[in-house]
């Protein structure tokens, strides 16, 4: 019963925070320099044409009136129309979102899995050559500058060696003419490899270091000493007793990483021309496409807020000592 009350209270809290974010975003975009019209107006447009366009976009109304119209539409599931594309914002997001989820969820889960595996080995072998090698490698990985690393592997593996395509997600000639689903899947993986490798190397180090640090603290606990005294094998103590509790901070990190990955790591998507939410977000902000930019940011905010609740519940599941 207590957990139900906790979830109910958190949902109310999330709803309030979400609408505060919505309000801030709405007015923040309208206070930013530049207008959508400056990016859309044809040089041959007269002043009357420009004013007509402003009226059609609803930008001639006072900001407060625009806000209440937007709020009413939002509550009915209408996110508006993109100023640039002239299409419903919800349609654009639904087209881009699967690509972002595919790339960033895969990279986050893969990096977390490898990072946790290597982190617990490094902690167990503290002070050894293996620990030193893994720790130094993780530090290098954690401090890599994403644009530099992405451009480096794109230049070398894509342009210089020519093993991988320079961008995009699919080869049209394969997807149009090839009947085999397996061949199409291989083509997708081929396009996905470079951005996936970039994100993997950028994030695996942080998970490794986090797991190592957490594991070192757990290994000092009394129940670990007791397990050793009982003569349990190293593998059993490390994997069944220590790793489960040490993984709690990693769960938080993975949960939030998955949530924030919904924005698509804008720079990564831009460099590899991956058609996801992050790339669309850069375009919308730079072109003052208010409805599209607001929707992208709100999507990120909503997912992050929900992810926090899920992580809290996972904590209680993983560690019975935690109650709400």
Defining traits:
MetI-like fold, single chain, mainly alpha, globular, 2 domains, 324 residues
Overview of this protein structure:
The protein is an all-alpha fold and 324 residues long. It folds into 2 domains: 2-75, no CATH class; 91-318, MetI-like fold. The chain is 76% helix and 0% strand. The protein is built from 15 helices and no strands. The protein has helices at 2-31, 36-40, 47-56, 63-75, 89-124, 129-142, 146-160, 172-177, 181-218, 222-229, 234-246, 248-260, 266-271, 277-286, 290-318. It starts with a helix and ends in a 6-residue tail after the last helix.
Brief write-up:
Helix content is 76%, strand content 0%.
Topology (elements, then pairings):
Layout: H1 2-31, H2 36-40, H3 47-56, H4 63-75, H5 89-124, H6 129-142, H7 146-160, H8 172-177, H9 181-218, H10 222-229, H11 234-246, H12 248-260, H13 266-271, H14 277-286, H15 290-318
Question: Helical percent range?
Answer: over 70%
| Structure summary, number of beta strands | 0
**What is the CATH fold-level name of the largest domain?**
MetI-like fold
Ranges where pLDDT stays below 50 over 5 or more residues in a row are: none
Q: What form results from the Cα inertia axes?
A: globular
The CATH C-level name of the largest domain is: Mainly Alpha
What is the straight-line distance between the termini? 10 Å
CATH architecture of the largest domain: Orthogonal Bundle
Overall pLDDT confidence: 81
**Percent of sequence in beta strands:** under 5%
Discrete helix count: 15
